[in-house]
Amino acid sequence: MKKVFLLIFIWILIRPSAFANELDRLVNQGNAYYIEEQYEKAVQAYESVLDSGYASPELYFNLRNAYFKSHNITMAVVNYERALILDPGDEEILHNLNIAREFVVDRIEVLPEFFLRAWFRSFTKTLDSDLWATISIASFVMALCLLLLYVFSLRINLRKASFWMAVFLILISVSSFVLAAEHNRMVMNHNQAIIRTPSVTIKSSPDEQSGTDLFLLHEGTRVTIEDVLGEWREVVLTDGNRGWLKESDLIRL
Known about the structure:
Elements: H1 2-35, H2 39-51, H3 57-69, H4 73-86, H5 91-101, H6 115-124, H7 129-152, H8 156-188, E1 192-195, E2 199-203, E3 213-218, E4 222-229, E5 232-236, E6 242-246, E7 250-252
Helix pairs in contact: 1-2, 2-3, 3-4, 4-5, 7-8
């Protein structure tokens, strides 16, 4: 029995390390294939890492480059978009995404966003949710220390200063918590998608026969999923136009 427990303990210790080593091997293999210009094999290696449950901006970035080199522009755009969701402040990812978008047929106008909402979204993206959460926790702990100083200090000036500093830090803690939650929602929100078929007709209703043809979209175009009905999805474009198409025509980000 002791040997069984010992083996289990050793397996628990070794398995995460072995798993990490396997991921490193696949990533290095993908990089080697990319250097050797075997782009389809590089895609397979990177996709194997993603299938294991691991994801990072760098991995999506490398995968996108491999797709781009293998002339799969749609999947290149998809993986750049995914990389940008995880690391919205990376200028290199944004620059290369804009290059990839030049190959997309549709040119959709972007409606102006209310400036306060746009500022809030932009400020939220300056840090990831983990950093916002760290700031929130650190500010809260410092506020508690200052409140203890306020309670036990005998000097009036020190009590006043510690009290107002504690209030200030609590406000920072609450604000950072809200920003962490918002950033996490933006990352976990899977209602963004890319058109995957060469061209698709957008319908006025979720019906192949009775739905009126509204407009045509081509692969690589980004849409927002607003509603779901069976195999149909209602999508909205950045210019405000909306309509229905099938789930099979989309790749969710």
